[in-house]
Known about the structure:
Elements: E1 4-7, H1 13-23, H2 25-32, H3 40-50, E2 60-65, E3 68-76, H4 81-93, H5 98-112, E4 122-130, H6 139-153, E5 158-164, H7 168-176, E6 180-185, E7 188-194
Parallel strand pairs: 4-5
Antiparallel strand pairs: 1-2, 2-3, 3-4, 5-7, 6-7
Helix pairs in contact: 1-3, 2-5, 3-4
Amino acid sequence: MDIKIRQGEASDAAQTAPLILSAAESLLTSVFGHNKDKTALGYLTHAWEHGGGQYGFKNHWVAEADGTILGVVTAWHSKLGAAFDRATLDSITSYFTLDEAMNVLMRNQTVAVNLTPPTTSELMIGHLSVAEAGKRRGIGSALVDLMKMRAEQLKKRKLVLDVEVTNIQGIRFYQSQNFTEASINKGFIRFERDV
């Protein structure tokens, strides 16, 4: 089976939103999933199709084989700037009512205080997830390699990422990719690796 890694597209939403959710389901549900009619999965689908910001297709890459998306990844860096933040906010306010959006932002802020954004010399990997059908086929490694190449293009010195301490499978995967534990902060392990 031939695996192709490409930039995300709006039409990928039905396959990518569940993958992104699975990358940090308890965390994303705690932020976006408090309305029975507007779920975390519903928001992630909307945000992906919206295009910009933290959950939009424009900042994600997918691993695909025979029309099926088997993996997804994104990365953040210090130069994304205000337009990236505005696009994230716009995806929230265009999906949730104003009151719901305010609550989402407050819940998100509660989580964000425990996470350190990337420095100017770091590229931060996020939302890395591989579908069950793609596991043990090198897809996760290929997505990490793609982020390493992206870091080199952006002249970054380190790849970093945060993993929930309860995500044993994720921790083992990143250790197998030569990431080392840099710190632990309120339920998250910061891993890093030189580029």
